[in-house]
Structures are given as C-alpha cells and as structure tokens.
Amino acid sequence: MFKRRSFIFSFETFARGGRIRPGTVPAAAVALLVFLGFELAAMWLCAAVDPLWAYWHPVAGARFEAFHAASASEGVPDVLIVGDSTAESNFDSDQLAKDATRPTAWNLGMSGNLPLAFRATTMPVLRNLDPAPAMVIASFMPTGFLDLSPVRAMEDRIVSSYECRRTQGRSRGLDRFSLTHAWAALRVWNASRDGSLGRVRDARGFLTRDSVYDAGTRTGRLVQDAETRVAGVPQPDRLAVIEDLAAWARDRRVRLVVCIPPTRDRSESRTTIDRELALALGALADRFGFALFIPEDEKPFDDTEFADRNHLNTRGAARATRMLMDRAALIPSLKSRDARWAP
C-alpha cells in the first residue's frame, strides 16, 4: 500500500514522545545551507545594484538617485518639476537651464506617481532638501484625483515598495532578508544591462516623446469614460496631498505652481473632471497662495503637439515650458523668491 512521505519540516518529522527521528538533523542542516546559499546570492545581487533595488521600478530608482547625486555635487536646483508622467514629459527641464542666465532645473516627475503615491515618494525628498528649491512645478493627471481602480492599483504598487515603506517607517521583519528583494534587484540588473535605465531621458530628467497623437488610438488613456462618469469628483484624501505640498512650500518660501495638464480627451466626463478639479485647486490656491497653471486656458494645444491623449510631445512640451517661463517671470526674478506670479 502506498504511504505518503513526510515533509522534513512537518510534525510527522518528529517521533512521538518528543524524540527526533533519525535523519532529521542532517535534512534540516541541508535546508539551512540551501537557504543561506540563496540568501548570500541575493545579498550579492542587491549589493551590485544598491540602492536601486529598493525602488518600485528600476527607472524610478535611477532617476531619484541621479537627482540626489546631482543635488549633493551641484546643489539643489532652482526649479524642480515633480508629479506624474504629465510632469516628466510636459515640461522640459533642459530648456529651462540652457542659458547661463536662466535657473538650474531638474525634472523629477515619474509615471504612475499619482497623488497618494507622490506623498510617499516625493514629499520625503522635498522635506529633506536643504536649501529648498526656489520654485516647484507640480503636474498631475486629473483622473489621478479620482477614486478609480486603475489609479489605486498604480499607487499601491509604488507605495508597497521597500523605499516607500522605509521612508514612512513601515519596514517589515522579512525586509532583513535579501531574498525578499531578489526579484526587484534582478529587474534592476536586467534593466542596467539592456540600457533602459536612462533611455529617452536627458541629463536633467525630461522624458522626450517624439510621436504625434493619432485620434484613432487609445494610447495614454488612464480610465474608460464609463468608469470616469461613475466617480468624477476629486477625492478629499487626494486633494489633501496638494494641501501638504502647499503647506510645505509656504513654510519654506518656495514658489509653487500646480498645473492641470492639457488633454485631447474632449469627452463630457473628462471636461467635467477638469472643471471640478480646477475649482477645488483654485480654492486651495487662494488659501495657500500658490499659482494654478492651466495651459489650455491660454492657448489650446493641437494634435501635432500631443504624443497621446494625456501627454505632450517634445514640440508641445517646448511651448508649455515657454508659457510657464513667461507667466512665472523666471528670468531674472526667480532667485529673489519675492517675485509674484504674473497675472
């Protein structure tokens, strides 16, 4: 008759009466040695790509660590662009810094870095900057302020990363084992070998998009209109992130500009979202004294200036950056920190 074999770590391993069955100690020792071997290999892999493995994505780690290194060697930039993918591709930090008479600038926007993720990824960075930048430009996709499942999924993936948990004091006991970070480290290792860590980004973090919008595609849409219609009101917990950012800027005497990015989505639901968000952010701007920048209100962008529905291409980003520079009177009054946002 077939008899099931016992697993070496099950209670069947031990004989009745508390005595250890023959062969248990060698088996446990072998298992321990195997675990130690894998742990040492994981330690080596994590050390080889440290500290990028701690971030939610290899590119995010490369960009944030590059910013930290540049800030340490060159000083904190005068202008810092933060937010999600609309920040990283809609404002050209290199264009801001081309001329020696212009301020230094850095783009720290990152895809998926929507408001609740931003609180965990970027707010700790801002609070630790000394001195603070003279100006911070923040841009978020309007749908990032809604309670939608795609939004929550992106934010949860970012917030659950070791770097976010560490900065928020939420480390776990298993974090002490390198094996728990081996997959993240392997992703960084592969990304470093195929060259994707710095692809299509310039030295100051700007993401170039050379494609031109095609109305026949759905590229770049975050949510479907049907879901948007169900939850088209900006959520208080997400607006609270802007409050935190504005309070920090006010305390540190930083000129804050919050941008509602342009879009090619002309649906009624998206128009409603943008209008509701503008009202909510406008009230916060009046309360905290930051500037609300809505490029589409000044001169709408056409299809040739979009890469997809929600992101400007390089041509559109150049115009948006010029509009911001003109409106904010960046030259030469920025470093005084006393210049007013141009009406």
Question: What do these coordinates show?
Answer:
- Helices cover 47% and strands 6% of the residues.
- Helix 11 packs parallel to helix 12.
- A five-stranded parallel beta sheet has the order 2-1-3-4-5.
- Helix 12 links the parallel strand 4 and strand 5.
- The longest helix has 25 residues.
- The protein has a single domain, classed as SGNH hydrolase (Rossmann fold, 3-Layer(aba) Sandwich), CATH 3.40.50.1110.
- The chain is an alpha/beta fold and 343 residues long.
Give a topology summary:
Layout: H1 24-48, H2 58-74, E1 79-83, H3 85-90, H4 93-97, E2 105-107, H5 115-121, H6 123-128, E3 135-139, H7 149-159, H8 162-167, H9 182-194, H10 225-230, H11 236-251, E4 255-259, H12 268-288, E5 291-293, H13 295-298, H14 314-328, H15 330-333
Parallel strand pairs: 1-2, 1-3, 3-4, 4-5
Feature tags:
single chain; 343 residues; alpha/beta; Rossmann fold; 5-stranded parallel beta sheet; 15 helices; 5 strands; 47% helix; elongated; disordered N terminus; disordered C terminus
Largest sheet: 5 strands, parallel
Counted beta strands? 5
Q: Mind telling me which CATH architecture this is? A: 3-Layer(aba) Sandwich
Helix content: 40-55%
- Distance between the first and last residues' Cα: 89 Å
CATH class group: Alpha Beta
Q: Number of helix segments?
A: 15
* Structural class based on helices, strands and sheet pairing: alpha/beta
